[in-house]
Amino acid sequence: MKATKETNQRQTAPPPPPHRHHHPNRREPPTLTPEPWLVYTHEKKIKSQTFYSSSEQRSHFRNFHKMRNRLICAHCQCWLLLVHINKRDFSLFNPATMEEVQLPRMPRILDSFDSCAVSSPPNNDDCCIVVLIEYCYLKKQSTLFFCKPGDDDDDKGWRKQRVEPEEGQCGNPHASHLSYFQNVASFNGDLYVVAACCESLLKVQFVIDDNGDTSIKLLDLKLRRPNLNWADPYFVRTTLMSSSFLIQASPTELMTVELYYGDQRDTVEYSYEICRIEGFEAGVIRIELYRANFEEEKWEHVEELPKDTAIFLGFLQDNVVSYEVPSRQDLDRGGGVSSREHGVLHVSVVVYDPRLNLSQQLELLGSTGS
After folding, report:
1. What is the per-residue pLDDT across 28-74, written as a single tens digit (0 to 9) for each?
2. Residue 369 has what DSSP assignment?
């Protein structure tokens, strides 16, 4: 009887408490609002994701199996371009509908790639993905990999094309250490790249020959990169490095964002650390925005962002999102972004460093989680 009583007690014992990280909705998408969301991955082996809503001013933590062990390297509307940590498996994932589109497997492991972009959603027949991998210094070439959803066989998988600058095109005296292509961006269904050696904006065109083979042609739009003030001794002394981001800032605007990093000992005012360079604490010392004017073939300096607009920049081109918030009050209250004044330019920027842990990210965003 005693053993039976103990058995009954064990059978009726309450279940153990749930794991402290358990959340009933971790595998369901958050209720989406009309404005875009800031999405990034974190934790060991990239198991979890954070969806930040500016309208709610809070972060929603999720654990989507289809995003596990994957990095977000580009986006188009609600679709995220994901790459596995093995750097060979790519897919398109829509966190709003949980739809997934597998892309062909990369024929070889990519050591790294500069940037990538999706021209349009996968349900569009013209959707195409372009991946720019590292620059070959010996051959002075960049290699473009591109494909379309549904291209699964060997003949129509990832296709590659090497592109090198035309004779006399390189007009940048500092370009010997730069990649031929700096980054790629999607704008109104078209893809654009910036050629570092000639500092010009190029439009990516896909040409189909008589045999049905697709190749890439780059159209020079004659938009030269704005001249940098390298003649300023103070600017040269304090600037350790720079990053350039090509983004679609609005349905009608293609912009480039130039970030300049310097030693924090010379830039106490902007002490936000984002990287370390040879022992220096490097922070943002200057931000420049330029808008592409296709009609006049020039970049126009942007003195101030449009009302209720913020730009989220991914660290080293990992992810770039142009982000509209509901009202200026959200920015005044913080709105999850770090608002600063850089001269006459009023810009709200979050630079996401993947080396920061989750608590540091939340402190940076100033938001609460759910």
Report:
1. 666 655 555 677 776 666 777 777 776 677 777 888 888 888 888 88
2. E
pTM for this predicted structure: 0.69
- Cα–Cα distances (Å) from 266 to 23, 262, 273, 288, in that order, read 45, 7, 13, 19
The dihedral of CA 248, 250, 251, 252: what is its sign?
negative
Query: Which residues have CB under 8 Å from 30's CB, separation 6+?
Result: 37, 51, 53, 60, 62
CB 251 within 8 A of CB 229: no
Q: Is residue 198 part of a domain?
A: yes
Strands 99-102 and 113-118 turn out to be unpaired
Number of domains composing the chain:
1
Taking a C-beta distance cutoff of 8 angstroms, is the pair 284, 315 a contact?
no
Please report, for residues 5, 19, 20, the alpha-carbon distance to residue 16 in angstroms, rounded to integers and kept in the order given: 20, 9, 11
Please state, as a whole number, how many other Cβ atoms lie within 10 Å of the Cβ of residue 149.
Answer: 20
Q: Which domain holds residue 140?
A: 103-225
Residue matched to tokens 């490095």:
241
Residue at 109 is within a domain? yes
Within a domain: residue 59?
Answer: no
Please choose, from the candidates 168, 171, 196, the residue with its C-alpha nearest in 3D space to the C-alpha of residue 184: 196
Of 147, 149, 146, the closest CA to residue 122 belongs to: 149
**236 three-class SS:** helix
Nearest to 246 by CA among 98, 136, 132: 132
Under 8 Å between Cβ of 61 and 49: yes
Cα dist. 367→60, 197, 256 in Å? 10, 41, 28
Q: Is residue 125 part of a domain?
A: yes
Span 116-136, pLDDT tens digits: 888 888 887 777 787 766 666
The amino acid present at 87, given as its one-letter code, is K
